[in-house]
């Protein structure tokens, strides 16, 4: 799932990108508020992690501009200061959660997943298409009564296909859901992940439309 990280600290941003990527998020990282608003126009993000103290345009201003458009994207605010005032202002202006930068990374990831669930992505933490059930929390896939664990990147590819069941996604669209827009991608990465998913789920699970892309039909049985 796609996540927008807005953080100007290079060291912290690198650490967050690595940890969130391992947790299955496709992270797009920008370093100022104005760029964040422009990036959001592309859509498709499941959640945003927003630093309060940003150059060009502060996090609070970004949040206000976002909510003015009636955009209900879940937003978790990050701050270096553990003050009640910052927390109250953030929540009053439309933030969904608030965390101090010194917090444990596992807590951040757990809170992000909770925000995404509350926003209605999946039903009860699962995504269902035909005989496939994808658990959005523990990253397992069940087909024909058999449950398998899949890698974070396989999970991201499969989730994108299941969320768009019946539609054809190009390799570029799958790369965006997997890596975000700020990463270099190996030329055959998507093909490798599709191949591995077919080995686990069956060759009939994911269809290839030669020269166009990949799809999962609404009924996979």
Descriptive labels:
single chain, 221 residues, alpha/beta, five-stranded parallel sheet, 8 helices, 11 strands
Protein topology:
Layout lengths: L1 E5 L3 H13 L3 E5 L2 H8 L6 E5 L7 H10 L6 E5 L4 H9 L4 E4 L4 H14 L7 E4 L2 E4 L4 E4 L2 E4 L2 H12 L7 H9 L9 H13 L5 E3 L3 E3 L6
Parallel strand pairs: 1-2, 1-3, 3-4, 4-5
Antiparallel strand pairs: 6-7, 7-8, 8-9, 10-11
Helix pairs in contact: 2-3, 6-7, 6-8
Element string (H = helix, E = strand): EHEHEHEHEHEEEEHHHEE
Largest sheet features: 5 strands, parallel
Order of strands, widest sheet: 2-1-3-4-5
Kindly state the mean pLDDT as a whole number? 85
The helix tally amounts to: 8
Give the oligomeric state.
Answer: single chain
Instruction: Enumerate the spans where pLDDT stays under 50 for 5 or more consecutive residues.
Output: none
Share of β-strand residues: 15-25%
Give the CA-CA distance, first to last residue.
25 Å
What does the radius of gyration come to? 18 Å
Overall strand count: 11
* Dominant shape: elongated
Helical proportion, percent range: 25-40%
Query: Helix/strand/pairing class, anyone?
Result: alpha/beta
């Amino acid at each position: 799932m796609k996540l927008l990280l807005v953080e100007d600290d290079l060291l912290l941003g690198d650490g967050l990108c690595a940890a969130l990527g391992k947790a299955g998020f496709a992270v797009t990282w920008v370093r100022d508020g104005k760029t964040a608003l422009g990036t959001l126009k592309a859509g498709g993000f499941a959640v945003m992690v927003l630093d309060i103290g940003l150059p060009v345009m502060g996090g609070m201003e970004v949040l206000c501009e976002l909510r003015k458009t009636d955009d209900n994207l879940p937003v978790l605010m990050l701050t270096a200061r553990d003050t009640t005032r910052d927390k109250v202002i953030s929540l009053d202006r439309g933030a969904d959660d608030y965390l101090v930068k010194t917090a444990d990374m596992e807590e951040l990831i757990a809170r992000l997943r909770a925000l995404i669930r509350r926003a209605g992505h999946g039903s009860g933490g699962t995504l269902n298409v035909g005989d496939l059930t994808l658990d959005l929390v523990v990253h397992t896939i069940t087909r024909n009564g058999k449950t398998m664990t899949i890698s974070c990147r396989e999970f991201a590819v499969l989730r994108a296909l299941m969320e768009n069941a019946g539609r054809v996604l190009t390799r570029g669209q799958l790369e965006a859901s997997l890596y975000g827009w700020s990463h270099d991608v190996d030329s055959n990465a998507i093909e490798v992940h599709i191949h591995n998913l077919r080995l686990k789920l069956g060759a009939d699970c994911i269809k290839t439309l030669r020269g166009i892309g990949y799809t999962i039909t609404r009924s996979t049985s």
